[in-house]
Amino acid sequence: MPTTAPAFSDATASDSALRRFLHGLPGVDAVGLEARAASLGTRSIKTTAKAYAIDLAISMIDLTTLEGADTPGKVRALAAKAVHPDPTDRTTPRTAAVCVYPDMAATAVAALAGSGVKVASVATAFPAGRAALDVKLADVRDAVAAGADEIDMVIDRGAFLSGHYLKVYEEILAVKAECARADGPDARLKVIFETGELSTYDNIRRASWLGMLAGADFIKTSTGKVATNATPANTLLMLEAVRDFRAQTGVQIGVKPAGGIRTSKDAIKFLVLVNETAGEDWLDNHWFRFGASSLLNDLLMQRQKLSTGRYSGPDYVTVD
Hints:
The protein is α/β, with parallel strands linked by helices. It has helices at 15-23, 30-40, 47-59, 72-83, 105-112, 133-145, 157-161, 165-178, 201-213, 232-249, 264-277, 295-308, and strands spanning 61-64, 97-100, 118-123, 150-154, 188-192, 218-220, 254-256, 290-292. The protein has an eight-stranded parallel sheet. The longest helix is centred in the last third of the chain and has 18 residues, at 232-249. The radius of gyration is 19 Å and the shape is globular.
């Protein structure tokens, strides 16, 4: 039988039990959710706090390249940027991780050795997730064997939207098992819901709880490959879920909004959401990440402006 946190073992005992639990979660007040997210986004941040927030946001970035044209050289260049985002200012924090496809994980691991920057690898037939389970698990094994510290998996949205919750739950369990290592720390598992395809806030709440029950270390909004990705409202909803899950189980789960977060102003709004919803315990890159590629450049330009009083512009940062 499926296993999960003891407090919810009955909820995952069968497909019908899991369906009852997920559909028994409180419905989401969409108007209230969006209003609160918008209200928190208007908070004024003073200069000192802004400088702190920019550095914190840089340290939370999973610097990402997920393109068919990725090459070892591009991955090594991205790794160098992750370690020294601003070569002219070595006080600039390193990013949290570099995120690549599984075939580039070994290149990233070698480039980042000893730096403290993690290697994250997407898996399970990212981004669509349309593959047989054995193919998905082989994808994960390859990334873990290459040394990836973190695995970003996609759920089977077709199964979820069809109400086959136990299938999705068991697939996450199987991927989690492949993240285990005999000779080192297990790879942390980020579970991507592709919130833009889940259609409703109720579905996002259900997916959040499903992922956490199955052992996700992080829940993640999106692949960044569809029209609607991370939004303040869907991230707020997921932050409420991890807060409530920890209150009931004592287990803390991370959150990763990904896709569409491009400016310092946007990033700071998300940090306010974290602080005001889940709390200070999540204001750390072990528990909160930004999935981004272009965001880092804007954070660096804003950081330079705060330190020099001048806005350097995009010519002073590398084009990834």
